[in-house]
Amino acid sequence: MFMQSTKPYFIRALHEWCVDQGFTPYLAVAVDETTRVPMEFVKNGEIVFNVGLEATNQFLIDNDAISFQGRFSGKVFPVLIPIGRVSAIYARENSEGMAFEITESNIEEPSAPTRLGRGLASVDMNTDANTESSGQIPNQTQVDRAETSKPSSGDSPAPAPTRPTLTRIK
Asked: C-alpha angle 151/154/156, rounded to 5°?
């Protein structure tokens, strides 16, 4: 019988403990070709993530990998970390946590888009394809451009947005 690694269970437990105590959980990762991380933030083959609830979106610790979305320099980046590449999880405030041995990962990157459900497929976030012709949902910049190029329906242009002011009444 194949025995599951205890590593993902310890990582989940320490993450939950940090959150319950009001601490900020940090995750140290040894980067290799199987990790999907923003490479511009990797130093000496390692990267440290704030994996607190406010810092991540769609955070999931599976038995094989940790995945989430994070913001790096204002851009959303999907992160995938094989469990074997996690070197430590600890609280930023007091450094309480656990270090782990780095092992080779057995996670393989899918070669074709994976079907996620009825009519859905995973999308490569690094492509700059024209979304209007490909049927994809336009990003916020394209929406902003489309909204600013619409002609106004009234005779006079809409007033420029101003900062709200407080009027004191006696």
From this structure: 95
